[in-house]
Amino acid sequence: MSKWVYFFGDGQAEGRADMKNLLGGKGANLAEMSSLGVPVPAGFTITTEVCTYYYENGETYPADLKQQVMDSLKQIESIMGAKFGDPDNPLLVSVRSGARTSMPGMMDTVLNLGLNDTTVQGLIKLSGDARFAYDSYRRFVTMYSDVVLGVDHYHFEEILESLKEDKGYTLDTEVTAEDWKHLVGVYKAKVLEQLGTPFPEDPVEQMWGSIGAVFGSWMNQRAKTYRRLHHIPGHWGTAVNVQAMVFGNMGDDSATGVCFSRDPSTGENAFYGEYLVNAQGEDVVAGIRTPQNISIAGKEKNNSDLPAMEETMPVIYKELVAIRDRLEVHYKDMQDMEFTIQKNKLWMLQTRNGKRTAAAALKIAVDMCNEGLIDKETAILRVAPEHLDQLLHPTLDPKAPRDLLAHGLPASPGAASGQVVFTADEAEAWAQKGKKVVLVRVETSPEDIGGMHVSQGILTTRGGMTSHAAVVARGMGVPCVAGAGEIRVDYRAKTLTVGDRVVKEGDIITLDGAKGDVFLGEVPTLQPELSGDFADLMLWADKVRRMKVRANAETAEDCGTARKFGAEGVGLCRTEHMFFDPKRIIHIRQMILAEDEAGRRAALEHLLPYQRQDFVEVFTIMQGLPVTIRLLDPPLHEFLPHSENEIADVAASAGVDAATVKSRVAMLQEANPMLGHRGCRLGITYPEVYEMQARAIFEAALEVSEASGETVLPEIMIPLVGSVKELEPMRALVDRVAEETFTAKGQRIEYHVGTMIELPRACLQAAQIAEHAEFFSFGTNDLTQTTLGMSRDDSGPFLEVYAQKGIYPRDPFQSIDVDGVGEMVQIAAERGRKTRPDIKLGICGEHGGDPDSIHFCETVDLNYVSCSPYRVPIARLAAAQSVLLKGKEAEKDR
Ligand code: PEP
Ligand code: MG
């Protein structure tokens, strides 16, 4: 018989923290807490295997599930001293989802389950509070109807609003017990009217309905979108947790809250949390009421005038602090905990490793290592490389003038400016048009995640540091100011107002997510300083990593950034990018359009000095480090002139008429420029182009080496090679120009010649190609395009569908397709090394900055990865993690 259900409660549990795959994060941690003796309401977890079974068997359950659930329910009853459906002493339960990794708010939850017209009487007796009991009952009916029966929430909201209007109430707190009781009846009548069947009274039927709804919600649209954005596979499934209810809304000696064992924004080792008196958990997360801080220090820090729990409930606060200490030491990581106080008794409802900002992740990892709680290797693995992105982004220039509009909570750090939009859909639509937007909402909900993801920043007017907007923005690394209460949002008029100042849709505002400030207009920003914890962790990572990290850079500015971020050379200098400047592009166009060699040489004469000067700058900045320069690789469509003006300019500079230029442009038009006359094909047909470039490189290298006395290490790279017969003559040309230049200047330097590997043929022919190449640099952008037969410019729209269907779960242009392109790389690496054992292997496609692709590069022993300058720190950390992960995998295989 399979075990589908795992019980926990009263200091015991059948599950453990390391069973997340089976029990989901929530279930595994509830079990662990229960075993540790932390007070947890009794419950059971239905495993993720049941979810898998459910979807593989036409939404049905394994035959023996029912009995296991009913047995566990009996256990809850005996521990909690209450009975499901009992008229005097009813047990109520919650039914919640729980996947392997948390997917906040994406799936369904049902609370207060087990209430009906009979058991509500029992709840009145137990609590002595009819209003509380009927309030719980109506919450249950709305939630169940919405989540399980599919009767939309707004029906119930309308009924409530009209009752409040009739009675002249403005607040929910004015609604009486009798009113709630009456509403329950009206709600049920609404359900009957909508569905033709009555609301279920039988608690067991209610429970199975809710379990089915939670499994069903694994496949709802927002859960699917969330999984796609976070690369969570659909086959993981969710577990379902059924747990005895405890009530934080049983009066002023009851409360509910969320807390973090360290500050999730800054990482500071200070207990941080928020709570609401006389409320249920959903009230905190929904951000409808403004919560109070748990500690006095937190209250002071947030300038709150509401009393802290440390003051109002000092004994329970102490108990909570002790649990926080216990759990953090046990899990050796920052914990995000949910708790409820029912009539002065503390219950823990959840603990998990807390989401945190990048700054906090760094500080917590470094601090915990210094405290002796974890070792350096664990610290390195604790920080998600992608997350560093947040720290590499700008902050507001403190000297810049600014116009403060409003102030809210510093919910997610970083500074961002953008045009105001008021709905998530608008945010997506505007972003698609290339606009930078700031999404402004009263509060956000899980439906908004698509729009939040594309926004530069998020601003809400309601809710605390643990509101949906705050939690999601921090996870996404998007700057966010939450709960800016002085701002009034008018969705209909598409305006936000602060006093008499009005901001319209499309106006620009700036957010400072680290301080919680909102400014009118754009405020200039500053680049980040990478010192302190960041430098410490990078140093540890550098000691562990094997692969070098270089940058793709061609301008002085990019090279400077790359060096500052710790690049160990330039892995790709795209020389065609050096010609986009208007003063130069004209000569490139003239060169491309020339009808004969003399015409091309005339244009190249103009380009040589520019080119030499560019290389002088690059070599000067990168002194002592290798610089890989790729000879011209211009897909022609990027360079041909299009407008009348452009054509006239080229004609004038070449001394021909516009008609001649036009007819040349027409002749050179290619149906498929990415597979056309580009790469080394240009060098083969017009060797004088590569000759000029090689000359510029060697002259610049000699000049810088002489002036600085430092080593200059040029590596000349031939692009888009498919055959050794292409590489051989190009290499001979470079060697010849080198000799000529060295002889003319009476000085020599060391240099290397190698090739890009970006065509499948080159991978297969790597053994032959390696005879003439001292290094290979994998151009995985083109290699992906040519291996998959998918245009890198045109595949976006269908790849999105492919991702949804799991065909290529991640965009293969962003993260390497290990099975296909990866095997190509592996073949080339093996064959190349056979010919030339010391051949240097690197990668310079976009994948060189993607952590998962970097892990792949480690497995095939590449010597270096090269990525855009801003990703260099990300790559340094990812490369270190790759070594550690590879080691762990090897251990597992042993
Ligand atoms: C590549 O193809 O991966 C590459 C780095 O070259 P480019 O993107 O310039 O074609
Ligand atoms: Mg390429």
From TrEMBL:
GO terms for molecular function: ATP binding; kinase activity; metal ion binding; pyruvate, phosphate dikinase activity. Pfam families: PEP-utilizers (PF00391), PEP-utilizers_C (PF02896), PPDK_N (PF01326). Coiled coil: none annotated. Its EC number is 2.7.9.1. SUPFAM superfamilies: Glutathione synthetase ATP-binding domain-like, Phosphoenolpyruvate/pyruvate domain, Phosphohistidine domain. Residues 21-58, 64-302, 318-368 form the Pyruvate phosphate dikinase AMP/ATP-binding domain. Residues 435-516 form the PEP-utilising enzyme mobile domain. Keywords: ATP-binding, Kinase, Magnesium, Metal-binding, Nucleotide-binding, Pyruvate, Transferase. Its cofactor is Mg(2+). The active site is at H468, C844. It catalyses: pyruvate + phosphate + ATP = phosphoenolpyruvate + AMP + diphosphate + H(+). Substrate binds at R574, R630, E758, G779, T780, N781, D782. Residues 531-882 form the PEP-utilising enzyme C-terminal domain. Signal peptide: none annotated. InterPro entries: ATP_grasp_subdomain_1, PEP-util_enz_mobile_dom, PEP_util_AS, PEP_util_C, PEP_util_CS, Phosphohistidine_dom_sf, PPDK_AMP/ATP-bd, Pyruvate_phosphate_dikinase. Mg(2+) binds at E758, D782. It is an enzyme of class 2 (transferase). Catalyzes the reversible phosphorylation of pyruvate and phosphate. Belongs to the PEP-utilizing enzyme family. NCBIfam families: PRK05878.1 (NF004531), pyru_phos_dikin (TIGR01828). This is Pyruvate, phosphate dikinase.
